[in-house]
Specification:
The chain has 212 residues and is α+β, with helices and mostly antiparallel strands. The chain contains four helices and seven strands; from the N terminus they run ααβαββββαββ. The longest helix is centred in the first third of the chain and has 26 residues. It is globular.
Length: 212
């Protein structure tokens, strides 16, 4: 009897300890400090950025203004000095490009910033308003590696990555039915139409007071 009583007490003691441990729940992990991000190699000093800005003023600005005034002598034209996208839009763009590239089975190698010039029209082809006609701007294109060369790409209607040059390259004209696809053999994202990855419609204009 004594042994049975001792065993019973030990059983209930172990049960109480187990119940207490379950009520406490798992221990919360201590928050870890984020890893320090080192500055990219391309970071330049404020002095160098001022020098580059002044070089553009000296060697480009007057030529652009003179050309535009020759086209339309009765219209005042102030050349753009910057193009900007909101920080939130850039973060969304990066996440979208990575998502689309991953689904197509390709790796984004770089982002190209192409110089551009807005049309002298009230609206873009998609109906959106041209806020600054004739103004210089930029648009962004992601690239992928094909045989050691980087090319801008988009996502085709079949979900595969396709090269922009095969669709719009010089001398090609309309899209070729035999244009190459660079992706998994089985598409993971079937679409009804092509998906562009080119980002435009930045805010362009003269520099705000206080920058340079």
């Amino acid at each position: 009897m004594k042994n049975n009583k001792t065993a019973l007490i030990a059983f209930f003691g172990a049960a109480l300890l187990l119940l207490g441990a379950c009520q406490q729940g798992p221990k919360k992990e201590e928050p870890t400090e984020p890893e320090e991000v080192l500055p990219p190699e391309g970071i330049i000093s404020l002095e160098e950025s001022k020098s580059l800005y002044d070089n553009y003023t000296k060697h480009r600005l007057g030529i652009i203004k003179e050309y535009e005034m020759e086209r339309y002598p009765d219209r005042m034209h102030i050349p753009a000095r910057f193009s900007s996208f909101s920080y939130a839009e850039i973060k969304q763009y990066m996440a979208f490009v990575e998502q689309e590239a991953k689904e197509a089975g390709v790796k984004v190698e770089s982002l190209r910033l192409y110089f551009a010039n807005y049309p002298d029209k009230p609206d873009f082809p998609d109906g959106k308003k041209v806020v600054h006609p004739r103004q210089n701007s930029i648009f962004i294109v992601p690239t992928m590696n094909v045989n050691g060369q980087e090319y801008g790409f988009y996502i085709g209607a079949d979900g595969k990555a396709k090269l922009i040059k095969d669709a719009l390259g010089t001398g090609i004209g309309s899209r070729k039915a035999k244009s190459k696809s660079y992706a998994n053999m089985i598409p993971t994202n079937i679409q009804d139409e092509d998906q562009s990855l080119t980002l435009d419609r930045s805010t362009s204009g003269p520099p705000p007071n206080g920058d340079y």
